[in-house]
Design goal:
The chain is built from six helices and eight strands. It has 217 residues and is α+β, with helices and mostly antiparallel strands.
């Protein structure tokens, strides 16, 4: 190369330099992949644990399923506290929200039936905790007396369609019966007094039923 052309072209990289750079890039990529994978794994564990789908499910089953406890308090129609402090959300039933018609009656119903009495807790196999960490459970006074279902049947709670569970159809039938009689909160209930999630479900349900009755073109 003539002296005049020197400095106009970059020096040719040596083979060992290229190998060093490629090794560093490959190592950086592996570290990045491992870091991202680890982050996703940790987030997944947190989510599973929060919703009762990991170790908590097995622990809850061992500690609570088909075991008897004394009820100490009813903080709402669908929420109770067991002896020892465990808070329970009664699966399948949704009591009226704070300040809505039927709230006080729902809490009084659960308090009168459960506080101070011994109940048997039964769990679903897939999810044992809600987003707030409350134990999701059926509460039985006797083998055939599911108080969660009684709440809905007697008109003191809605059938909660937000959580899938084994006895969902029985809860929905109980709600339909209480609404048609009507009983409890269904007496003179206005649409705006229902929780937002149920109003949204009702709109979707009516739209689906209307579309199914329209003649096909």
């Amino acid at each position: 190369m003539s002296p005049g052309l020197r400095g106009k072209f970059p020096p040719i990289a040596r083979e060992e330099d290229i190998h060093y750079i490629e090794t560093r890039v490959a190592r950086w990529r592996r570290v990045r992949i491992i870091s991202v994978s680890l982050a996703v794994f940790v987030i997944g564990l947190i989510g599973l644990g929060r919703f009762g789908l990991l170790g908590a499910t097995q622990n809850d089953w061992q500690a609570y399923d088909r075991r008897s406890f004394t009820v100490e308090k009813a903080s709402a129609g669908d929420r109770i506290a067991l002896a020892g402090g465990t808070r329970v959300r009664m699966l399948g039933a949704a009591a009226p929200e704070v300040g809505k018609p039927g709230e006080d009656e729902s809490r009084a119903y659960t308090q009168n039936r459960l506080v101070g009495r011994t109940v048997t807790i039964r769990l679903e196999p897939t999810q044992t905790r809600d987003a707030d960490g409350l134990l999701l459970a059926y509460v039985f006074l006797t083998d055939g007396d599911n108080v969660n279902l009684d709440l809905v049947k007697d008109g003191h709670a809605y059938a909660d369609r937000r959580v899938k569970h084994t006895f969902a159809s029985a809860f929905e039938q109980a709600e339909n019966d209480a609404r048609r009689k009507p009983r409890g909160l269904w007496v003179d209930l206005r649409s705006e007094d229902q929780p937002a999630w149920r109003r949204q479900w009702l709109v979707a349900y009516l739209a689906k039923r209307q579309s199914s009755t329209q003649p096909s073109k």
